[in-house]
Amino acid sequence: MKTNPLENHLPLIRRPSRYLGQELFSVVKDPETVGLRFALAFPDLYEVGMSYLGMKILYHILNQRPEVWAERVFAPAPDMAGLMKERAILLPSLESGLALKEFNIIGFSLPYELGYTNVLNMLSLGGIPLWAGERKDEDPLVIAGGPCLFNPEPMSGFFDALVIGDGEVVIEEILDSWLTWKKSGGNRQALLASLAELSGVFVPSFHAKTGNPPIIEKRIIPDLNLVGYPEISPLPYQQIIHDRLSVEIARGCTRGCRFCQAGILYRPVRERSPEQVYQLFEKGLTRTGYAEATLLSLSSGDYTCLNELLSALMERWEMEKVAVSLPSLRVDTLGPEVIEQILRVRKTGFTIAPEAGTQRLRDVINKNITEDEILQTVQRVFSLGWRVLKLYFMIGLPSETREDLEGLVDLVRKIKKAVRKKGLRFEIHVALSTFIPKPHTPFQWASQLSMEECLERLTFLRSALMDRHIQVKWNDTRQSFLEGIMSRGDQRLGRVIYRAFQKGSVLDGWGEHFSWDNWRQAFEEEGIDPQTYLKSRDQQETLPWDFIHTGVDKAYLWNEYQRGLSGLATADCRQGECNQCGVCPALKVKPLLFKAFDVPSGRPLSFYPKESVRKFRLLITKQGPSRFLGHLEWKEAIIRSLRRTRIPLTFSEGFHPMPRLSFGPALPVGLSSQGEYVDFQSYGWQTTEAIKNQLPGELFPGTQILEVSEVLLNSHLPQGQTHQYRVELNPSLLGEERVQEFLSSTSWPVEKSGKKPGIIDLRPLIQEVSLRPGSGGTMTARWLLNPGPEGEIRPDIILRSIFNLPDTVIQGLNVVKS
Question: DSSP for 534-584?
Answer without folding.
Answer: GS---TTSPPTTTTEE-SS-HHHHHHHHHHHHTT-----TTTSS----SHH
